[in-house]
Amino acid sequence: MTNTSNETTSNAAAGGQGELYGVLAEFATPGALIKAAKKVRDAGYQGFDCYSPFPVHGIDEAMGIKRTILPLIVFGGGLTGLGLGLLLQWWTNAYDWKWIVAGKPFFSIPANIPVAFETTILMSVFSAFFGMWILNKLPQVWHPLFRMGRFVRATDDSFFLAIEAADAKFSREETAALLAGAGALQVEECFKDPDPETRQVPKWIYAVIATSIAFSLVPFALIAKARNSTSREPHYHVISDMDFQQKVKSDAQFDLFGDTRGNRGAIAGTVARGAANADEAYYAGLQASPDGSKQWLLGLPSQVAPSADTLQRGRDQYNIYCAPCHGFDGQGNGAIPQRAAALGGAWAARNLVAADSVVIKMPNGQLYNTISNGFNTMAGYKEQIAVADRWAIVLYTRALQRAANASQGDVPPAQLSQLP
């Protein structure tokens, strides 16, 4: 049921009338509310507001609302969060407890972006939430409009415009007539609660806020205590099931299985994706013999092209992984044998380039296999060195052998005169 007249009713149902707060007008549609807001604004009113169940596009312009400072508050909160996030990471990782990670810088912007981003968002959200409450002077659970029974529909299916009596142009009769002429379904006067106690924040709310603040300081107190005291007691694990998970580490004992081995090995008949390595010449250094059996590859796989670049790559990898034992010249006098001798011990590495060395007679495939899987006390390096680099080492080893056993016939005639 609606009332389209300029009826003005009292707020008798509110349980008593105090000071007049203003008048409240109800409208049927968002469009009617926008038209009424424009009319009220053009009439010179400033102390009025609109209420609707959902955001109404264009209502801000119709009311003449200016941009608030809330975006600036949110921007400031974001900058504060960004600064605090960077400061926290610099303090914890680069100043108070320097965190060494593989020789990387203690502080660098790229490494700190994730945390700085999160703190920026966090402080922006807090600034938007609390800034909105402060700018709107919330909460106001005692607001006079809440005493209007009809006003509950503002969150459901109706649209309201209220003009405050404190507005300079407010006139009890003229304002009501203006709203009625703007198409209001109903115009009602709204009065403040005559009991001043109802306009006070309940004391229990203050108690909840004070208690929350007190509890929020507890973690900081515990941190201060931990920083200024020592203890031999083990840490207290708040989430123990994460610190002590039910798991078995690699190659550790695990009684759940009959053989007590935690490592169950590869599942029979399965191959990890990308690890088939079906080309035996390239991945295993093998080739098929005429009788169908497998034998070591004598030449090079088709994927390996002898070139200056390949030799240089082989030299780089050899100097890293092989030279410590076999020496830079391949004669077995690397830093480790020399160190063993200096300590009074004796540990000889194989001479790779001696004319009578077994390595010279070794097929390329076998030499590749030795680099990959090791031999006697030599460990395999297939986990550390890529396949192409292992073949590059084979090439460089052959170059060392050729250089160490070169004859006068290997020297170009034009350069023979330069030999000593």
Q: Can you tell me about this structure?
A:
By secondary structure, the chain is an alpha+beta fold. The chain is 41% helix and 8% strand. The protein has a five-stranded mixed β-sheet, with helices on one face. The longest helix has 27 residues, at 109-135. 21% of the residues are buried.
Helix content: 40-55%
Which residues sit in consecutive blocks of at least 5 with pLDDT less than 50?
1-15
Task: Provide the succession of SSEs.
Answer: EEHEHHHEHEHHHHEEHHHHHH
Number of strands: 7
- Please report the number of helical segments: 15
Radius of gyration: 43 Å
What is the spatial order of strands in the main beta sheet?
1-5-2-4-3
Strand content: 5-15%
Distance between the termini: 120 Å
Based on Cα principal axes, name the global outline: elongated
Structural class given helices, strands, pairing? alpha+beta
Largest sheet: 5 strands, mixed
Average predicted local confidence, pLDDT = 89
